[in-house]
Amino acid sequence: MVTIYDIAKITGYSAPTVSKALNNQSDIGQKTKDKILQVAKELGYIPNSSAKGLVTKKSWLIGLIYEEDDMGVGIEHPLFASIINAFKQNMEATGYELIFIARNLGGRKMSLLEHCRYRHVDGVLIVNSNADNEEVLEVTKSDVPCISSNIVFPDVSTVTSENIRPAVEAVQYVYSLGHRSIAHIAGPQNNIASAGYERLEGYKAGLVSRNLPINEELIVVSDLWNGQSGYKAMIELWKRKVKPTAIFCASDIMAMGVMNACRDLGLRIPEDISIISFDDNLWASFAHPPLTTFRQDRQAIGKKAAEMMMMLLNGEKVPPRVLVPVTLIERDSCARLPLET
C-alpha cells in the first residue's frame, strides 16, 4: 500500500507537507499541491479515512435526514432525488461522504441526534422533513451544523427555489392569454414545506397585480403533494358555482391528477381549460398535452446547499435563506381565449 512517506520520498517534500496537500489545506502553494497530487495519482495512492480523521479531527461524513410521505416513493422522489444527488456530488468533490441518518441502526433504536453523534458527522443536510418534528428540531438546536433544503427551520440556513415570484408570473401569464377566471390548486398549508403557502401567496399577489378579485371559490387546498390529491381537488373545484378557464397547480405531480380529473369530467386541455404548473418533473414534457410549467433548478439547489455547508464547516457566516431562480417552460397546456364579440 502506498503511503504519504512514499509520496514524500519521490516528490522531495516532507510527510507533513504531503499530508497538507492531500487534505487540500490552504497553507501550501498551489504548484506544490499540484505536484504532490499528480504523484499520488500516478502511484495509485488511496487515503486512509481513519488516519485522515485523526489528522484533521473530522469524520469527513455528512448526514442526510430525508423523509418523504406524500408520494410514497422514498429516495426516487422526482425533485429531491436530483437535489440530493447534486449535493452529494459537490460534497464528494471536497472529500466528504454522504450517509443517511435513521432512527434504527442494526436493530437498535436511537434518536436522529444520537445517530449523528454515533457517526460523528461533521454536518447534516435536512430534506423534506416536518418543521414540527421534535427529533429533527433536536438536531437543528444542537451543535451539529445543519443546512435545510425545502423546509424552513428556525435558525437554520435554507436553500429553496423561488416560490412567490413564479406564482405571480403564472397568474400574469394566463392573464396575458385572456383568462380572467383563474383558479389555484394549492399545496398543503402546513409545516412540511413553505412552497404551499408561498405559492398561494404569489397566486393572490398575481391576481391583485392584474386587478382581479381574490375569490375563495377558485382556491382548493390539497391534502398532500401527490396526484391523488390533485385529482380530488379538481373534482371539488368543478362542483363549485364559479368555473375557471385556467388553473395554476402548485406542483407537476398534482397537475397530473388535475389533468386526469379533467379528462374524466369531459374537459379538453387546453381548449376548455388551461393548466400551468410548477416543477418541470421528468414526465411534464410527456403529459398529454405537454405541460407548461416552471422548472426548478435541482442541480443549482444541491450545489448551493453544498456551498453553504462548506461555509458552515469553515466557520463562515451563511445567509438565512437562499432562493434559486426558476424558469418558465412553455408547452401546450395553455391556450389563448378567443376574443369576445
TrEMBL record:
Keyword Magnesium: no
Native species: Gracilinema caldarium
Keywords: DNA-binding, Transcription, Transcription regulation
CDD domains registered for this protein in UniProt: HTH_LacI, PBP1_LacI_sugar_binding-like
UniProt xrefs under InterPro entries: HTH_LacI, LacI/GalR-like_sensor, Lambda_DNA-bd_dom_sf, Peripla_BP_I
Domain named HTH lacI-type: residues: 2-56
Name of this chain's protein: LacI family transcriptional regulator
Keyword set includes Transcription regulation: yes
Top-level taxonomy: Bacteria, Pseudomonadati, Spirochaetota, Spirochaetia, Spirochaetales
Cross-referenced PROSITE patterns: HTH_LACI_2
GO molecular function, one term: DNA-binding transcription factor activity
